[in-house]
Amino acid sequence: MPRTVFTGADARFHDYAARRLPKKIQELLPAISSVRFLDGPLRQHVFGGTLNEIRPMLIEETERSSKPSLLLSRDGSLFALAVPTTEPVAPCTKSQKTLKIYWSDMVAHAPNESLKPKMMTETQCESR
Per-domain residue ranges for the chain? Predict the structure, then answer.
C-alpha cells in the first residue's frame, strides 16, 4: 500500500502509475514506474492561480521523495509537474540538484480566440 503524505485537508500525495497518465505528461517524464500524485477536491477547480500556488508544494514533495510530483486537473487539461533531473541544467551547477518544472497555462493566441492550454517550463536549482 502506498504511503500517503497529507499536505492539508484538501490534498494528499500518493504513488500513481506513470503509464496511466496522459501521453502529454508521460513524454515529460524519465523512464519511471510511478509519480507522486496530488489528489483531492482541489483537482476539480484547477486554474492558473492554482498551478502557480501549488508548484512549491510539488517541488517540496519531489525533493522529499526523489520522484516526479504532479497535480492534474480532473479533466486532464491543466497540470503542474516537478521532475528531478539526473544532469544539471543551466543555470544550475553540477553540485546542485536540478528540477524541471512544467505547467500548463491558459492563453489566447489572438484577441477573439478562446483560451487554450500552453505548456510553460522553468528550471529550479537547489539552493545551498
Answer: 5-125
Distance of CA 84 to the CA centre of its chain: 11
Q: What 8-state DSSP symbol labels residue 25?
A: H
Which triple of cell numbers denotes residue 117?
A: 492550454
Place of cell 508521460: 26
3-class DSSP string for 34-94: EEEEEECHHHHHCCHHHHHHHHHHHHHHHHHHCCCEEEECCCCCCEEEEEECCCCCCCCCC
Pick the closest to residue 72 from 11, 128, 9, 122 (CA basis): 11
Model confidence over 87-96: pLDDT tens digits?
Answer: 777 778 777 7
Q: How many CB atoms lie within 10 A of CB 28?
A: 16
Half-sphere exposure of 31 (CA within 13 A, CB side): 0
The residue among 5, 127, 21 whose CA lies nearest residue 64 is: 5
Q: What is the pTM of this model?
A: 0.79
What torsion, rounded to 10 degrees, do the Cα atoms 90, 95, 97, 102 define?
0
